[in-house]
Amino acid sequence: xxxxxxxxxxxxxxxxxxxxxxxxxxxxxxxxxxxxxxxxxxxxxxxxxxxxxxxxxxxxxxxxxxxxxxxxxxxxxxxxxxxxxxxxxxxxxxxxxxxxxxxxxxxxxxxxxxxxxxxxxxxxxxxxxxxxxxxxxxxxxxxxxxxxxxxxxxxxxxxxxxxxxxxxxxxxxxxxxxxxxxxxxxxxxxxxxxxxxxxxxxxxxxxxxxxxxxxxxxxxx
Length: 221
Known about the structure:
It is a single chain. By secondary structure, this protein is mainly alpha-helical. The chain folds into 2 domains: 3-66, Homeodomain-like (Arc Repressor Mutant, subunit A, Orthogonal Bundle); 73-209, Tetracycline Repressor, domain 2, CATH 1.10.357. 70% of the residues lie in helices and 0% in strands. The protein is built from 12 helices and no strands. The protein has helices spanning 3-8, 11-25, 32-39, 43-50, 53-68, 78-95, 97-105, 109-126, 131-157, 165-168, 178-185, 190-206. It starts with a helix and ends in a 15-residue tail after the last helix.
């Protein structure tokens, strides 16, 4: 390839194209030949800009983690801001599932969650939580978000169920509660369910602890 054509390609353009391939088709789709075809260039040009595939993967993961940046949630209270952190983390996980999988494969999952964890620590401290209680709050919210996203994905990818929820629930199976039966027979509103669950969790964990709530095994109390 002529040096002028090669210089027209940039490292950022290569990383952008690589991220696009991973986002659309998953990490396995990221090959040097496929990336070159995506960019309309030669494989040698890709090597010149980013090195081999392993180096490319490392650079892509580092950029993905860096782009997450600092989370600065809005809200007047620690509860509101913590819910905002959870909401933002869910959005990131849903918007970039293949890139998140790539980060996990490269052993950087904990670093990937660090911005959200730091933001939750600030809200825990603002609410007066310290030590083990603060750590439990951070991890409980993180696990709630990750677990919810995993269930969402499994439901979205699952084949049609026979019988479906609408066929399983009737006033009889719902303990003679017709309203409950109708609600459970309707499609799940994942967004509303997430908000309900994470708000309840955050509110409960940020509530002041009474004397009877301390656990003997907790060295922080």
